Amino acid sequence: MFWIINFILAVLVLAGFAGRFGWPFEIFTSLRPQLALLMLAMAFYMIMIGRPASCLFSLGFAAIAIIGMSAQFRTSPASVEQPDMRIVWANVFHKPSALKRVIQLAEKENADLVLLAEYDGIEMTLPDNWQYRLLPDETTLTKVVILSRGSVDNMAVMDAPFRPVSKVTIETPAGVITVGGIHPHTPMYPSWNRHRNADITAAMKTLGEHKHAVLVGDFNTVPWSQAMIDAERESAMRRVPYGPWSSWMGPLPFFGLPIDHTFVTNDLEAHVRVGRGTGSDHLPLIIDVRILK
């Protein structure tokens, strides 16, 4: 019985390495942390019942899964001294209480911008000091809301193949910074998986053509997925790691997943940290950026 469980888990680990072939393999790519944790649990149990061969089998495939998710353990860059812009990103999960806490976080952090996903359905009066806003209406089908303390050059919705990307351009003392917000489909169905990949690739390619550009969002995929690897390789943007932490379903690696990300062009210095829980299923990100001289 235990060999059967071990074998099934091993097959799922290996299936994740076929993520380039799309759905459903990419789902197992994303679940590598959980599969690794299950394999480690199986190895511990095999030790307890005196089955060393089964233990080594489980440990071997746990190691394969962990190596395959090494992008999660990339060291976070050093903090940015005197950032030109601070951004708070959050998926508020349609909860007014989560939105309220995110606004409080942004004010505590003295953020310049707040970008929000899953804002629709919330009936809450926004503070007056966040008066520059890109909100959804009958003509704006944006999936990401933008709030700004100060005046902006423009707020617009940028075309993408399936879900539009919100965009704002802000003049800072050091120069203009363009910020995009993305929230593509979840990979629950084959078509949604393709839609998500197309939107990520398009957004990164378009924003990568700007000087001083940032793309933040709930990408609905992990940094070691083939979709993210391909999109980063084909664009002029790079992901800013935030260490081993997860951003969805809790901060601990192997329990949650890092699916909220920040990408920047190479003419920006950036630092990202994961904030405390707000009552949403996602944790917020606090992003500092500075224009390189």
Structure in words:
By secondary structure, the protein is α+β, with helices and mostly antiparallel strands. It has helices spanning 2-15, 25-30, 32-48, 52-68, 96-108, 190-208, 226-233; strands at 85-91, 113-117, 132-134, 144-148, 154-158, 165-172, 175-182, 213-218, 237-239, 260-265, 268-274, 285-291. It has two domains: 2-68, no CATH class; 85-291, Endonuclease/exonuclease/phosphatase (Deoxyribonuclease I, Chain A, 4-Layer Sandwich), CATH 3.60.10. 32% of the residues lie in helices and 24% in strands. The strands form two sheets. The protein has a six-stranded mixed β-sheet, with helices on one face. This is Endonuclease/exonuclease/phosphatase domain-containing protein. Residues 89-282 form the Endonuclease/exonuclease/phosphatase domain. Pfam families: Exo_endo_phos (PF03372).
